[in-house]
Amino acid sequence: MTQHRKGLVLDFGGVLTTPLLPAALAFERREGLAEGTLLTGLYLDPRGIRLTEELERGKLTQSEWNEAAAELLGVRPDNLMGRIFADLRPQPSVIAAAAAARRAGVRVGILSNSVGPDPWNLYAGYELEERYDALVLSEGHGTRKPEPEIFRIVLDELGLPAEECVFVDDTEQYLAPAAALGFATVHAVEPTRTVAATETLLGIPLTGRNPERVTP
């Protein structure tokens, strides 16, 4: 392989973690909710969309979001975000691939639409500041994916142009805005395919060593 890109930008939830949807469905079963209640209440209802966008921009705290979202869903508010995503686990093969990229000299950044750190911290235990070259969480910048500004922020932190970077996200609607800026993009659907596609775009091997252990 011939290396021809110098940067890798990874989403967090659903890329460095197991998929979000199974965790959400498990939450619905635990709470006795009809399947699809979470999707309808938070991602199709205009009020839910507004709440989540304000959380991601840092305009709402997670506790405030918990209270408002609980009312929409008809559940109790205590640690709601943590309860929704309680089943998320690290995705070892993608984490190992990111580490392999760094060992090969690729600068690796995390770009995440964040959900606030308290009372539940989505990122706890992943050592993101130590393991990656840039960490851009939307709440700290007042902007969120798919807005171009947040992509420019992570590029500035990596010190690279978009044309030299690969962007990986499990949310397909975020890929086109990144591609418009010059990123090569990977839709993260299944970890083996995600790693293989990233490997091809970076032009370096990303597999072959034992996955790194991460225990949130």
Walk me through the structure.
- The protein has 216 residues and is an alpha/beta fold.
- The chain has 2 domains: 7-18 and 88-202, Rossmann fold; 20-84, DNA polymerase, domain 1.
- The protein is built from 10 helices and 5 strands.
- The protein has helices at residues 20-31, 37-44, 46-56, 62-73, 80-84, 92-103, 128-131, 148-158, 175-181, 191-202; strands at residues 7-10, 107-112, 134-137, 165-169, 184-187.
- It has a 5-stranded parallel β-sheet with strand order 3-2-1-4-5, with helices on both faces.
- It is globular, with a radius of gyration of 17 Å.
Condensed summary:
By secondary structure, the protein is α/β, with parallel strands linked by helices. It has 2 domains: 7-18 and 88-202, HAD superfamily/HAD-like (Rossmann fold, 3-Layer(aba) Sandwich); 20-84, DNA polymerase, domain 1 (Orthogonal Bundle). It is built from 10 helices and 5 strands.
Structural class given helices, strands, pairing? alpha/beta
CATH superfamily of the largest domain: HAD superfamily/HAD-like
Order of helices and strands: EHHHHHHEHEHEHEH
User: Share of helix among residues?
Assistant: 40-55%
- What's the story with the biggest beta sheet? 5 strands, parallel
CATH class of the largest domain: Alpha Beta
Terminal-residue CA separation: 34 Å
Count of separate DSSP helical elements: 10
Order of the strands making up the biggest sheet = 3-2-1-4-5
